[in-house]
Design brief:
Number of strands: 12
Largest sheet: 3 strands, mixed
Structural class: alpha+beta
Strand content: 15-25%
CATH class of one domain: Alpha Beta
CATH topology of one domain: BirA Bifunctional Protein, domain 2
Shape: extended
Strand order of the largest sheet: 3-7-8
Oligomer: single chain
Number of helices: 6
Radius of gyration: 29 Å
CATH superfamily of one domain: Bira Bifunctional Protein, Domain 2
Helix content: 10-25%
Order of helices and strands: HEEHEEHHEEHEEHEEEE
CATH architecture of one domain: 2-Layer Sandwich
Length: 305
């Protein structure tokens, strides 16, 4: 496709948009890639649409290379599928809910586990049909409480979601590793710097979860990482190991000691101060108008997605 600046539908901006907080949001708007329609909702102009399609093309190629088969579900979904799994109420205010003219409840799909499961259940009837991996690249809707950072956290966004159906745990592990390698190839082709970290499954469910996070100063997720052993985990999924068991056999027996309440001192022209030795001397507090103990600021490894 040949693009000519003389006919390209494009209008760049001189100044940053007032609602933009992060550099990516400012640049996308100023360069004429996206335009804001409402909080968390954006239109894609020709240049942005071409980039979006190129990213989608890479994702689709890698998923097909893995053996996944693409399907497409509707975004408008009836209540009963999510009622059966309990997620009609579990999602809470995150769901966009609506009713048709007859009063039937619907929602705009935030994710499609229920629909994938129902499709495979209705189409396959023999164990010989498995394993199978299905995926879709489709618009999702989530009523974010505070949409921010432009297209990074929106109420309407394009997402690839993939689901494998396996006969046993070994097959599940193989499918997981296939997806993991596929994501690694995808992000490598896109040229994105990323970190794979342990995570919590949240409303999606599952016994194990990993996230691919792109470290950036303008993100809103935090993970911790050990540069020695390579361990990395989302701050919500960090597991602190319990200390090793300690034996108390070599310690002296416990004793009960009297601790009488000290008598209040009485004013006197002559006073004396007695001090006791402390194995760990306490620091002398500075003289300020308010007496508060100073605590050192905690240190942690902070990264953003």
């Amino acid at each position: 496709m040949l693009l000519r600046m003389s006919s390209l539908f494009l209008r760049t901006l001189r100044d940053d948009p007032a609602d933009a907080e992060v550099p990516s949001h400012k640049l996308l708007v100023r360069a004429g890639y996206v335009r804001r329609v409402a909080p968390g909702i954006y239109s894609w102009l020709p240049l942005g649409k071409m980039v979006l399609e190129n990213v989608t093309k890479i994702v689709r190629e890698e998923m097909n290379r893995m053996g996944g088969q693409e399907v497409l579900f509707p975004a408008l979904l009836p209540r009963e599928y999510y009622e059966a799994t309990g997620r009609w109420t579990e999602y809470g205010d995150t769901l966009f809910r609506l009713q048709d003219r007859k009063g039937a409840d619907y929602l705009l799909g935030p994710t499609h586990e229920e629909l994938f499961t129902e499709m495979v259940k209705s189409e396959y009837s023999s164990y010989k049909d498995y394993p199978v991996t299905l995926y879709q690249i489709q618009t999702k809707y989530r009523d974010e409480a505070r949409p921010r950072a432009g297209i990074l956290r929106g109420r309407e966004f394009l997402m690839k979601d993939s689901y494998s159906f396996d006969l046993d745990d070994d097959g599940l592990k193989r499918s997981y590793e296939q997806h993991r390698e596929t994501y690694i190839r995808t992000f490598d082709r896109l040229g994105i710097t990323y970190k794979i970290v342990f995570a919590t499954s949240g409303a999606m469910g599952g016994s194990a979860s990993e996230e691919f996070l792109a470290p950036t100063p303008t993100g809103e997720d935090t993970f911790v990482a050990c540069h020695s052993c390579g361990y990395a985990a989302n701050a919500e999924a960090v597991v602190t190991p319990a200390p090793a068991a300690r034996s108390y056999d070599d310690l002296p027996a416990l004793q009960v000691l009297d601790t009488p309440t000290p008598r209040p001192s009485t004013p006197s022209s002559r006073t004396s101060t007695s001090t006791t030795a402390c194995p760990s001397p306490l620091p002398t507090p500075s003289r300020t108008s308010s007496s508060r103990s100073a605590r050192p600021a905690p240190t942690r490894s902070r990264r953003w997605s």
